[in-house]
Protein backbone atom coordinates (compact mmCIF):
# COMPACT_ATOMS: atom_id res chain seq x y z
CA UNK A 1 0.00 0.00 0.00
CA UNK A 2 2.87 2.32 0.81
CA UNK A 3 4.07 2.15 -2.72
CA UNK A 4 0.69 3.22 -4.13
CA UNK A 5 1.02 6.22 -6.35
CA UNK A 6 -1.51 9.01 -6.42
CA UNK A 7 -2.48 11.82 -8.65
CA UNK A 8 -3.02 15.02 -6.73
CA UNK A 9 -5.66 17.49 -7.97
CA UNK A 10 -5.61 20.99 -6.44
CA UNK A 11 -8.39 23.53 -6.77
CA UNK A 12 -7.37 27.11 -6.26
CA UNK A 13 -10.27 29.36 -5.32
CA UNK A 14 -10.24 33.08 -5.64
CA UNK A 15 -8.12 35.41 -3.51
CA UNK A 16 -8.21 34.55 0.20
CA UNK A 17 -9.83 31.16 -0.39
CA UNK A 18 -8.58 27.87 0.91
CA UNK A 19 -6.79 25.58 -1.53
CA UNK A 20 -8.48 22.20 -1.84
CA UNK A 21 -6.51 19.10 -2.61
CA UNK A 22 -7.71 15.72 -3.87
CA UNK A 23 -5.70 12.58 -4.14
CA UNK A 24 -6.75 9.86 -6.61
CA UNK A 25 -4.82 6.67 -6.90
CA UNK A 26 -3.87 5.53 -10.35
CA UNK A 27 -5.77 2.28 -9.76
CA UNK A 28 -8.98 4.18 -8.97
CA UNK A 29 -8.41 6.35 -12.00
CA UNK A 30 -8.05 3.30 -14.24
CA UNK A 31 -11.17 1.74 -12.75
CA UNK A 32 -13.06 5.00 -13.30
CA UNK A 33 -11.93 5.14 -16.90
CA UNK A 34 -13.00 1.54 -17.42
CA UNK A 35 -16.38 2.26 -15.80
CA UNK A 36 -16.85 5.34 -17.96
CA UNK A 37 -15.97 3.32 -21.05
CA UNK A 38 -18.51 0.67 -20.06
CA UNK A 39 -21.16 3.34 -19.56
CA UNK A 40 -20.39 4.85 -22.96
CA UNK A 41 -20.45 1.40 -24.62
CA UNK A 42 -23.74 0.52 -22.95
CA UNK A 43 -25.22 3.85 -23.99
CA UNK A 44 -24.06 3.36 -27.55
CA UNK A 45 -25.48 -0.18 -27.63
CA UNK A 46 -28.80 0.96 -26.19
CA UNK A 47 -28.93 3.86 -28.64
CA UNK A 48 -28.27 1.59 -31.61
CA UNK A 49 -30.80 -0.95 -30.32
CA UNK A 50 -33.44 1.73 -29.86
CA UNK A 51 -32.70 3.08 -33.34
CA UNK A 52 -32.97 -0.37 -34.86
CA UNK A 53 -36.16 -1.08 -32.95
CA UNK A 54 -37.62 2.20 -34.17
CA UNK A 55 -36.56 1.43 -37.74
CA UNK A 56 -38.09 -2.06 -37.48
CA UNK A 57 -41.33 -0.56 -36.19
CA UNK A 58 -41.37 1.91 -39.06
CA UNK A 59 -40.51 -0.87 -41.54
CA UNK A 60 -43.15 -3.16 -40.04
CA UNK A 61 -45.74 -0.39 -40.23
CA UNK A 62 -44.76 0.16 -43.88
CA UNK A 63 -45.03 -3.57 -44.59
CA UNK A 64 -48.43 -3.68 -42.92
CA UNK A 65 -49.57 -0.78 -45.07
CA UNK A 66 -48.15 -2.40 -48.22
CA UNK A 67 -49.71 -5.73 -47.25
CA UNK A 68 -53.09 -4.03 -46.82
CA UNK A 69 -52.73 -2.35 -50.21
CA UNK A 70 -51.79 -5.64 -51.89
CA UNK A 71 -54.73 -7.43 -50.30
CA UNK A 72 -57.06 -4.74 -51.62
CA UNK A 73 -55.55 -5.13 -55.09
CA UNK A 74 -55.94 -8.90 -54.81
CA UNK A 75 -59.62 -8.43 -53.97
CA UNK A 76 -60.03 -6.34 -57.13
CA UNK A 77 -58.17 -8.96 -59.19
CA UNK A 78 -60.33 -11.75 -57.74
CA UNK A 79 -63.48 -9.79 -58.59
CA UNK A 80 -62.24 -9.28 -62.16
CA UNK A 81 -61.37 -12.98 -62.42
CA UNK A 82 -64.85 -13.89 -61.21
CA UNK A 83 -66.40 -11.59 -63.83
CA UNK A 84 -64.16 -13.10 -66.52
CA UNK A 85 -65.13 -16.59 -65.39
CA UNK A 86 -68.82 -15.69 -65.65
CA UNK A 87 -68.24 -14.28 -69.15
CA UNK A 88 -66.44 -17.43 -70.28
CA UNK A 89 -69.17 -19.63 -68.82
CA UNK A 90 -71.82 -17.57 -70.67
CA UNK A 91 -69.80 -17.94 -73.86
CA UNK A 92 -69.68 -21.67 -73.19
CA UNK A 93 -73.48 -21.79 -72.99
CA UNK A 94 -73.75 -19.79 -76.22
CA UNK A 95 -71.21 -22.09 -77.86
CA UNK A 96 -73.21 -25.17 -76.85
CA UNK A 97 -76.40 -23.63 -78.29
CA UNK A 98 -74.65 -22.72 -81.56
CA UNK A 99 -73.20 -26.23 -81.81
CA UNK A 100 -76.72 -27.59 -81.66
CA UNK A 101 -77.99 -25.07 -84.24
CA UNK A 102 -75.35 -25.97 -86.83
CA UNK A 103 -75.58 -29.69 -86.20
CA UNK A 104 -72.34 -30.17 -84.28
CA UNK A 105 -72.07 -32.20 -81.11
CA UNK A 106 -70.97 -30.03 -78.21
CA UNK A 107 -67.84 -31.34 -76.41
CA UNK A 108 -68.52 -32.91 -72.98
CA UNK A 109 -68.28 -30.41 -70.05
CA UNK A 110 -65.36 -32.32 -68.51
CA UNK A 111 -63.24 -31.36 -71.54
CA UNK A 112 -63.19 -27.82 -70.19
CA UNK A 113 -60.94 -28.76 -67.27
CA UNK A 114 -58.55 -31.08 -69.09
CA UNK A 115 -54.94 -30.07 -68.39
CA UNK A 116 -55.97 -27.67 -65.61
CA UNK A 117 -54.78 -27.82 -61.97
CA UNK A 118 -57.03 -28.94 -59.13
CA UNK A 119 -58.72 -26.91 -56.43
CA UNK A 120 -56.94 -25.73 -53.29
CA UNK A 121 -58.30 -27.64 -50.32
CA UNK A 122 -57.61 -24.85 -47.81
CA UNK A 123 -57.01 -21.12 -48.01
CA UNK A 124 -55.41 -19.72 -44.88
CA UNK A 125 -56.11 -16.10 -45.76
CA UNK A 126 -52.42 -15.24 -46.02
CA UNK A 127 -51.04 -13.27 -48.92
CA UNK A 128 -49.27 -16.38 -50.22
CA UNK A 129 -52.47 -18.40 -49.94
CA UNK A 130 -54.40 -15.76 -51.88
CA UNK A 131 -51.71 -15.62 -54.57
CA UNK A 132 -51.77 -19.41 -54.92
CA UNK A 133 -55.55 -19.24 -55.30
CA UNK A 134 -55.31 -16.53 -57.96
CA UNK A 135 -52.64 -18.43 -59.89
CA UNK A 136 -54.88 -21.50 -59.88
CA UNK A 137 -57.88 -19.48 -61.05
CA UNK A 138 -55.81 -17.92 -63.84
CA UNK A 139 -54.65 -21.40 -64.88
CA UNK A 140 -58.26 -22.62 -64.97
CA UNK A 141 -59.44 -19.57 -66.92
CA UNK A 142 -56.63 -19.93 -69.45
CA UNK A 143 -57.65 -23.54 -69.99
CA UNK A 144 -61.31 -22.57 -70.31
CA UNK A 145 -60.42 -19.74 -72.69
CA UNK A 146 -58.43 -22.10 -74.92
CA UNK A 147 -61.30 -24.61 -74.88
CA UNK A 148 -63.89 -21.99 -75.89
CA UNK A 149 -61.57 -20.48 -78.52
CA UNK A 150 -61.18 -23.88 -80.18
CA UNK A 151 -64.96 -24.34 -79.98
CA UNK A 152 -65.61 -21.02 -81.69
CA UNK A 153 -62.99 -21.76 -84.36
CA UNK A 154 -64.87 -24.96 -85.12
CA UNK A 155 -68.17 -23.09 -85.14
CA UNK A 156 -66.78 -20.40 -87.43
CA UNK A 157 -65.67 -23.01 -89.95
CA UNK A 158 -69.06 -24.73 -89.85
CA UNK A 159 -70.95 -21.43 -90.12
CA UNK A 160 -68.82 -20.30 -93.06
CA UNK A 161 -69.43 -23.66 -94.70
CA UNK A 162 -73.17 -23.39 -93.96
CA UNK A 163 -73.25 -19.85 -95.31
CA UNK A 164 -71.55 -20.95 -98.52
CA UNK A 165 -73.94 -23.88 -98.85
CA UNK A 166 -76.94 -21.60 -98.34
CA UNK A 167 -75.61 -19.27 -101.03
CA UNK A 168 -75.36 -22.24 -103.40
CA UNK A 169 -78.75 -23.77 -102.54
CA UNK A 170 -81.66 -22.77 -104.86
CA UNK A 171 -84.28 -20.86 -102.90
CA UNK A 172 -86.17 -18.45 -105.22
CA UNK A 173 -88.40 -18.63 -108.30
CA UNK A 174 -86.33 -18.50 -111.50
CA UNK A 175 -88.79 -16.21 -113.29
CA UNK A 176 -92.08 -14.36 -112.95
CA UNK A 177 -95.15 -15.87 -114.55
CA UNK A 178 -97.98 -18.31 -113.98
CA UNK A 179 -97.59 -21.84 -112.70
CA UNK A 180 -99.06 -24.15 -115.36
CA UNK A 181 -97.71 -27.64 -114.65
CA UNK A 182 -96.29 -29.32 -111.57
CA UNK A 183 -93.75 -31.98 -110.65
CA UNK A 184 -94.82 -35.61 -110.98
CA UNK A 185 -97.13 -37.64 -113.18
CA UNK A 186 -99.32 -35.73 -115.65
CA UNK A 187 -100.98 -36.13 -119.02
CA UNK A 188 -98.56 -35.33 -121.85
CA UNK A 189 -99.92 -32.29 -123.76
CA UNK A 190 -98.84 -33.79 -127.10
CA UNK A 191 -99.67 -37.50 -126.78
CA UNK A 192 -102.28 -37.48 -124.02
CA UNK A 193 -100.45 -40.29 -122.23
CA UNK A 194 -99.61 -40.27 -118.51
CA UNK A 195 -95.94 -39.38 -118.16
CA UNK A 196 -93.64 -38.29 -115.32
CA UNK A 197 -92.87 -34.55 -115.44
CA UNK A 198 -89.45 -33.92 -113.86
CA UNK A 199 -89.88 -30.21 -113.25
CA UNK A 200 -92.39 -27.37 -113.17
CA UNK A 201 -93.64 -25.12 -115.98
CA UNK A 202 -93.98 -21.36 -115.56
CA UNK A 203 -95.86 -19.52 -118.31
CA UNK A 204 -94.41 -16.10 -119.22
CA UNK A 205 -94.01 -13.94 -122.34
CA UNK A 206 -91.02 -14.50 -124.61
CA UNK A 207 -88.09 -12.42 -123.38
CA UNK A 208 -89.05 -12.53 -119.69
CA UNK A 209 -85.79 -12.66 -117.69
CA UNK A 210 -84.74 -15.94 -116.08
CA UNK A 211 -82.62 -15.51 -112.94
CA UNK A 212 -80.26 -17.83 -111.06
CA UNK A 213 -81.98 -19.19 -107.93
CA UNK A 214 -78.57 -19.54 -106.20
CA UNK A 215 -74.84 -19.05 -106.77
CA UNK A 216 -73.23 -21.49 -109.18
CA UNK A 217 -71.42 -22.09 -112.46
CA UNK A 218 -73.01 -22.44 -115.89
CA UNK A 219 -72.00 -25.96 -116.88
CA UNK A 220 -73.78 -26.34 -120.18
CA UNK A 221 -75.76 -24.50 -122.83
CA UNK A 222 -77.26 -26.75 -125.50
CA UNK A 223 -80.18 -27.44 -127.79
CA UNK A 224 -82.27 -30.56 -128.47
CA UNK A 225 -85.70 -31.49 -129.85
CA UNK A 226 -87.36 -31.76 -126.47
CA UNK A 227 -85.84 -28.96 -124.37
CA UNK A 228 -85.08 -26.65 -127.29
CA UNK A 229 -82.46 -24.14 -126.10
CA UNK A 230 -81.54 -25.07 -122.54
CA UNK A 231 -79.02 -24.28 -119.78
CA UNK A 232 -77.58 -26.27 -116.86
CA UNK A 233 -76.23 -24.49 -113.74
CA UNK A 234 -74.12 -26.41 -111.23
CA UNK A 235 -74.53 -25.09 -107.67
CA UNK A 236 -72.19 -27.56 -105.99
CA UNK A 237 -73.09 -29.99 -103.22
CA UNK A 238 -74.60 -32.26 -105.88
CA UNK A 239 -77.29 -29.72 -106.87
CA UNK A 240 -77.95 -28.73 -110.52
CA UNK A 241 -80.77 -26.68 -112.04
CA UNK A 242 -82.11 -27.01 -115.62
CA UNK A 243 -83.81 -24.29 -117.68
CA UNK A 244 -85.52 -25.30 -120.96
CA UNK A 245 -87.40 -23.78 -123.94
CA UNK A 246 -85.27 -20.61 -123.69
CA UNK A 247 -85.32 -17.77 -126.17
CA UNK A 248 -81.66 -16.89 -125.56
CA UNK A 249 -79.00 -17.15 -122.87
CA UNK A 250 -77.15 -14.30 -121.13
CA UNK A 251 -74.19 -16.20 -119.66
CA UNK A 252 -71.67 -18.45 -121.38
CA UNK A 253 -70.64 -21.89 -120.05
CA UNK A 254 -67.92 -21.76 -117.38
CA UNK A 255 -69.07 -18.42 -116.00
CA UNK A 256 -69.98 -17.99 -112.35
CA UNK A 257 -73.42 -16.61 -111.54
CA UNK A 258 -74.90 -15.13 -108.38
CA UNK A 259 -78.37 -15.59 -106.95
CA UNK A 260 -80.76 -13.15 -108.67
CA UNK A 261 -78.50 -12.61 -111.71
CA UNK A 262 -80.18 -12.76 -115.15
CA UNK A 263 -78.90 -15.88 -116.91
CA UNK A 264 -81.39 -16.33 -119.79
CA UNK A 265 -84.77 -15.33 -121.23
CA UNK A 266 -88.06 -17.23 -121.50
CA UNK A 267 -88.74 -18.65 -124.97
CA UNK A 268 -90.84 -21.16 -126.91
CA UNK A 269 -88.19 -23.45 -128.37
CA UNK A 270 -88.22 -27.24 -128.54
CA UNK A 271 -91.26 -29.35 -127.67
CA UNK A 272 -93.46 -26.55 -126.32
CA UNK A 273 -97.12 -25.57 -126.56
CA UNK A 274 -96.41 -21.90 -125.84
CA UNK A 275 -93.92 -19.50 -124.24
CA UNK A 276 -92.90 -20.85 -120.84
CA UNK A 277 -89.93 -21.91 -118.72
CA UNK A 278 -89.42 -25.55 -117.82
CA UNK A 279 -87.45 -25.58 -114.54
CA UNK A 280 -85.85 -28.64 -112.93
CA UNK A 281 -83.81 -29.22 -109.77
CA UNK A 282 -81.64 -32.33 -109.69
CA UNK A 283 -79.82 -33.58 -106.59
CA UNK A 284 -77.05 -36.09 -107.28
CA UNK A 285 -78.54 -36.61 -110.73
CA UNK A 286 -82.08 -37.30 -109.50
CA UNK A 287 -84.96 -34.91 -110.24
CA UNK A 288 -86.70 -33.57 -107.12
CA UNK A 289 -89.69 -31.30 -106.65
CA UNK A 290 -88.42 -27.74 -107.32
CA UNK A 291 -90.91 -26.34 -104.80
CA UNK A 292 -88.75 -27.88 -102.06
CA UNK A 293 -86.14 -25.34 -103.14
CA UNK A 294 -88.38 -22.29 -103.39
CA UNK A 295 -88.95 -20.15 -100.30
CA UNK A 296 -92.41 -18.48 -100.43
CA UNK A 297 -92.20 -14.71 -100.81
CA UNK A 298 -94.15 -14.16 -97.59
CA UNK A 299 -91.32 -15.91 -95.72
CA UNK A 300 -88.99 -13.03 -96.64
CA UNK A 301 -91.17 -10.65 -94.66
CA UNK A 302 -92.10 -12.95 -91.78
Overview of this structure, please?
There is one protein chain. The chain is an alpha+beta fold and 302 residues long. It has three domains: 6-72, no CATH class; 75-168, no CATH class; 178-292, Glucose Permease (Domain IIA) (Distorted Sandwich), CATH 2.70.70.10. Helix content is 40%, strand content 25%. The chain has three helices and 15 strands. The chain has helices at 26-101, 127-167, 297-300, and strands at 6-11, 20-25, 178-181, 184-187, 194-197, 200-203, 209-211, 216-224, 228-236, 239-244, 246-249, 256-257, 262-266, 276-283, 286-288. The strands form four sheets. Strands 3, 6, 8, 9, 10, 12, 14 and 15 form an eight-stranded antiparallel beta sheet that branches. Strand 8 and strand 9 (228-236) form a beta hairpin. Helix 1 packs parallel to helix 2 (127-167). The chain is rod-shaped and about 170 Å long.
Q: Quick recap of the structure?
A:
The protein has helices at 26-101, 127-167, 297-300; strands at residues 6-11, 20-25, 178-181, 184-187, 194-197, 200-203, 209-211, 216-224, 228-236, 239-244, 246-249, 256-257, 262-266, 276-283, 286-288.
Q: How much strand? A: 25-35%
Biggest pleated-sheet summary: 8 strands, antiparallel
Radius of gyration: 50 Å
What is the structural class?
alpha+beta
The count of strands amounts to: 15
CATH A-level architecture of the largest domain: Distorted Sandwich
CATH superfamily of the largest domain: Glucose Permease (Domain IIA)
Helix content: 40-55%
Number of helices: 3
Q: Could you tell me how far the N terminus lies from the C terminus, measured between alpha carbons in angstroms?
A: 131 Å
Determine the CATH topology of the largest domain. Glucose Permease (Domain IIA)
Q: For this structure, what is the CATH class of the largest domain?
A: Mainly Beta
What is the count of structural domains? Answer: 3
- The SSE string, one letter per element, is EEHHEEEEEEEEEEEEEH
User: How would you describe the shape?
Assistant: rod-shaped
Mean pLDDT: 80
Unreliable sequence segments: 114-121, 298-302
Amino acid sequence: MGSERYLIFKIFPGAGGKVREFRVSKTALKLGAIFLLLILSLGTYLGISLYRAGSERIRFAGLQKENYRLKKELEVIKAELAALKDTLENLGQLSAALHTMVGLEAPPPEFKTMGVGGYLEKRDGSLKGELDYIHLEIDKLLGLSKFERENFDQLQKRLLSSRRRLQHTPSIMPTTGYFTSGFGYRRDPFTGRIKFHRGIDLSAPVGTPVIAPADGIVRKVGRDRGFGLYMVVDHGYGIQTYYAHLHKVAVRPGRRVKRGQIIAYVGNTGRSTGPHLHYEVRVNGRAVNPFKYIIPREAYYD
